[in-house]
Specification:
Layout: E1 33-36, E2 39-43, E3 47-54, E4 62-71, E5 75-79, E6 82-85, E7 94-100, E8 106-113, E9 120-127, H1 132-145, E10 175-177, H2 178-195, H3 199-211, E11 245-246, H4 259-266, E12 277-279, E13 303-306, E14 322-323, E15 325-326, H5 337-340, E16 341-342, E17 349-354, H6 356-375, H7 379-395, E18 434-439, E19 447-450, E20 454-456, H8 462-470, H9 481-499, E21 509-511, E22 527-528, E23 531-534, H10 548-565, H11 568-583, E24 586-587, E25 593-603, E26 619-627, H12 630-647, H13 650-666, E27 668-669, E28 672-673, E29 676-678, E30 697-698, E31 704-705, H14 724-731, E32 738-740, H15 744-760
Parallel strand pairs: 2-9, 11-16
Antiparallel strand pairs: 1-3, 3-7, 4-6, 4-8, 5-7, 8-9, 10-12, 12-13, 13-14, 15-17, 17-18, 18-19, 20-21, 21-23, 22-23, 24-25, 25-26, 27-28, 29-32, 30-31
Helix pairs in contact: 1-15, 2-3, 2-6, 2-15, 6-7, 6-8, 8-9, 8-10, 9-11, 10-11, 10-12, 12-13, 12-15
The protein binds calcium ion.
Amino acid sequence: MGSHSLVAKAYDSLGASANSTPVGITVSSGPTVVASPLQLGVQSGKSGTYEVKLSKQPASNVTVTSARASGNSGLSVTGGASLTFTPQNWNTAQKVTVTAAASGTGSAVFESTAPGHAKSSVTVTQLAATKAYDARFLELYGKITNPANGYFSPEGIPYHSVETLIVEAPDHGHETTSEAYSYLLWLQAMYGKVTGDWAKFNGAWELMEKYMIPTHADQPTNSFYNASKPATYAPELDTPGEYPAKLDTGVSVGPDPIAAELKSAYGTDDVYGMHWLQDVDNVYGYGNSPGKCEAGPSDTGPSYINTFQRGAQESVWETVPQPTCDAFKYGGKNGYLDLFTGDASYAKQWKFTNAPDADARAVQAAYWADIWAKEQGKGSAVSATVGKAAKMGDYLRYSMFDKYFKKIGNCVGPSTCPAGTGKDASMYLMSWYYAWGGATDTSAGWSWRIGSSHAHGGYQNPLAAYALSNYAPLKPKSATGAADWAKSLDRQLEFYRWLQSDEGAIAGGATNSWAGRYATPPAGKSTFYGMYYDEKPVYHDPPSNQWFGFQAWSVERVAELYQQTGNAKAKAVLDKWVDWALSKTTFNPDGTYRIPSTLQWSGQPDTWNASSPGANSGLHVTVADYTNDVGVAASFAKTLTYYADRSGDTEAAAAAKKLLDGMWANHQDDLGIAVPENRADYNRFDDPVSIPSGWTGTMPNGDAINSSSTFDSIRSFYEDDPAWSKIESYLAGGAVPSFTYHRFWAQADIALAMGSYAELLE
Ligand code: CA
């Protein structure tokens, strides 16, 4: 049977959309009036423009008429109400000007029509006269959600990136992540705040529930789960070549103390959490769309997949993609199971892995949706969705537990470290994952659940912990859910303080299972509640503590908590972190900026003493290189915005504005805001993928899997990618390729940063 699911995500991932929002690329058979953007914000007393053109060359002149069709009558067309397109200039956009009255709020739909053409509709929102950054939010929102720009699948699912050739945590751009869904929720919450329209936020949750939370048919055997023995132990190993990891029934495993109360609260055995990775276009061809198991390449729905599962040295370049439901149709004689887990025999099975930071971000988005909708007197519009977020938060507690529910603290030796007896197996931190699985045969009678023993600083979310413990609409229904999150809030804030370097940056994290197998840690390791300091938790290729984005993402949540509550512990961490981050940020005379990219670490924190925290004078960080990355800069700007709002720090406020203005003025393109990046790591497209000698199998597209496999050889679809020639020439000794990516999470975070700045500092 087994338990074992190891998720590691490389640098970053991303996401955003809704039922009622974008739907793939519109392919119209007849001639159409094409408008862009489809969303526009106009400040009171000012004007804005959208553009129109024709989709096809006309035989004779065509007149496009634009006017308000419904909604706020304070908005009207004041220019370009009638525009003529000739057989010569039909493809050259002309402007329609919309002017807002001196006061008022609300949205209106404008239609641009022409005889013999399908019309185009643009939603225009009147904004307060001061809110220029809300206008930016809507402009970028309009680009992101314009179906023609390629951010979304036909189902409305946000891709990881518009571009298909991209390898980082996801190994293809038209995969998506739970992270992307969570960013979509956050983006739509802000859209509700700016426009008063909450249907898109609710639609985004429904989309996520439909496609990214496994349905009952996808997790059919949870009723056989034995909470007194959640899973069978298997060690994590250092390198992919050491796998499969042998299951060991002799190692004691603690009981799961929350399964019964979750079942009691929600009346189901099924888990309410997102799986982390999805092959939206079914590029691999597994056909694991909701409710299906290996329906194959002809299946058209988004397909659940997994990649990482072989220890800390397994970079994305060394992974073997696998279906979440393994019916032995692809892979080898046991499907893919025996690449990862060593057992006497194998059963067909399903398994999912949750990325806790994403579910916490979904809760965070629901918190803001509730706050903002209530400010508008529209709380009832989102209350049902907010209730679902509370439920998701209840299950998210699985991430707090040691992988095998062993006791937290000084847990050394798989046989000698005792099993927990209940909540003593909870670290009250957000770990790297939780996972669950079981037999596909509904009469086979087994299923399993695991937590993760590794906690990364970058995954913590004290705002979500606050919301789930102190904010009534988000308090979970289970008996101990809210109390667990209250304890987690305190523990997370202590964790940030424990990991804060002498300089101010937040270091990697801690583990309850050294090397993932309860090994003996090096002598002198400092500890946090008996858990060992882990400089680079979970993954080492590349090291998980290097990316400045984890700083910005994680500390931003601390800043939101501080802005909402004034929490003094949060402020102390922020005061020091902001000083450090600003000292490493440069603004150039032309408005461009430079922020940290790669961090390097030395030393370790002082062993935690809650009553008298150490100074961490032996824990140090340096900045190895810098970047103008727009997504991370936006997260950073948002951190500064929330911090400045509560603290009154004028330097932080000014820096937030300069980052946002710098990217707006210098880095816009047709699809959003983006900068080129060199990808020297793409020389790993031909990296060998470790497959045990003698093991042979086949990918759904026929690619062979054997001991000669490489990253590319089991992904031959990449050779048909429009960008493949850049990889080919690089592998042949050419220059490092450059890509300008439009990652969903990054575009959403930029839009959110604009909206947050408008809300708090404008
Ligand atoms: Ca490696």
